[in-house]
Amino acid sequence: MRTYLVTGGAGFIGSNYIHYMFRKYDNEIRIINVDALTYAGNLENLADIENRDNYTFVKANICDREAIDKIFAENDIDRVVHFAAESHVDRSIVNPEIFVQTNVLGTATMLNAAKKAWELPDGTFKEGKKFLHVSTDEVYGSLPEDGGYFYETTPYAPHSPYSASKAGSDMLVRAYMDTYKFPANITNCSNNYGPYQFPEKLIPLTINNALAGKKLPIYGDGKNVRDWLYVDDHAKAIDMVQEKGKLFETYNVGGHNEKQNIEIVKTIIEVLREELSDDDPRKAHVTEDLITYVEDRKGHDRRYAIAPDKIKAEIGWEPETMFKEGIRKTIKWFFENEEWMKNVTSGDYQKYYEGMYSKKLS
Ligand code: NAD
Ligand code: TYD
After folding, report:
1. How many degrees, rounded to 5, is the angle at CA 341 between CA 337 and CA 343?
2. 102-158, pLDDT tens digit by residue?
3. Cβ of 35 less than 6 Å from ligand 1
4. Phi–psi pair at 196, nearest 5 degrees
5. Looking at the CA of 63, which ligand is closest?
6. In this structure, are residues 165 and 104 in contact, taking their beta carbons and an 8 Å threshold?
């Protein structure tokens, strides 16, 4: 049975990936999830699979070399899928150092531990072992409004502390592949949305605020463009890259689904109104009147857009979920999981929200 070590599996994409893998492979695989459970990590995301015999959770920091080495020593790991990271641009602007620690040093620890466990005396690696580093399109910087795409060959030009730290981690993975022929791949994916996304990111924040009748903060002129992908499509791409991709290659993942932020917020309001029943009191306040333009993010990248040509041509991956359908699925999930939202927005989240938005929205 193949054993996966997933890092950051209690976060948004990691937990969706674990669900996807158990739906697809059921008892054919074993997953060990290592996560430090920062503010973004939530075991509630995995409540329905936590008792599976082929699933194990280990609470550890990826910078903790001893803890990570121990996992490799005690388990014959076949695949690493490395999600764990600090992932929010706004937080990186306020506190960049933790991004360098987790994203750069944590990735170095993971690479080193896997190399130690998998390397043979002659410097080659045990057959079939693979490391997949999950990264972002933000490493490529910002595109002009009127054209161009990010290709795998686009030079790195990160602007935020988040994207700079992810670029650093990607460079380390490239260096391991070039120097040691370390068996790895990198995926650079566009913005994800879907179930279990923490409401500090645009889409879940908008859904949560709209339902509560709170203002919907839009940075700057609202015309910044992101290329949105439903999270299950990302999970599928990661699995397909490990199964069908060529080792040492980078694959861009995205679905040609470019939208301005203002369009996103208006679509969410429209779909919320369609899904709320007429006698639901929230329907009265879920309107575009909640939209509030606020001070822009510092260094705000104007446009991201992925060219997914390589992953389509070489691997046959294409996104399956159309944007409006994905937004509807996401909204329905949030309706069905109000308790989840209540739990993640209690306590520390309130402090974060006040710190980030009270001045902007006053
Ligand atoms: P997230 O913030 O929701 O989850 C991150 C997870 O990592 C959390 O469970 C957290 O507890 C864990 N973690 C953080 N620091 C850790 C540490 N030092 N040790 C162990 N665990 C730690 O992030 P996400 O949105 O699920 O993103 C996952 C990965 O995908 C990241 O590497 C991110 O850069 C990348 N990515 C995200 C997007 C997106 O739109 N969210 C798009 C492309 C790529
Ligand atoms: P976000 O979800 O934080 O993802 P990223 O910064 O990684 O792309 O933001 C998506 C876009 O939405 C980005 O252009 C910033 C913008 N945004 C707002 O306008 N208001 C908000 O409250 C947030 C969180 C983001």
Report:
1. 115
2. 999 999 999 999 999 999 999 999 999 999 999 999 999 999 998 899 999 999 999
3. yes
4. 70, 15
5. 1
6. yes
What single-letter amino acid sits at 329?
K
Q: Among residues 137, 239, 258, 301, which one is catalytic? A: 137
Q: What is the pLDDT of residue 362?
A: 81
The Cα 336–Cα 99 span in angstroms is: 33
255 neighbors 307 (Cβ within 8 angstroms): no
How would DSSP label each residue in 124-156? -B-TT-EEEEEEEGGGG----TT---B-TTSPP
Task: Give the predicted TM-score (pTM) of the model.
Answer: 0.98
Q: Which atom of ligand 2 is nearest to the CA of 203?
A: 2
User: Tokens 């040691």 belong to which residue?
Assistant: 180
Q: In this predicted structure, what is the pLDDT of residue 151?
A: 98
**Substitution candidate for ligand 1 out of 83, 109, 189, 193 with most atoms within 8 A of CB:** 83
Output phi, psi for 152, to 5 deg: -60, -25
Q: Is 362 helix (H, G, I), strand (E, B) or coil?
A: coil
CB 109, CB 62: distance < 8 Å:
yes
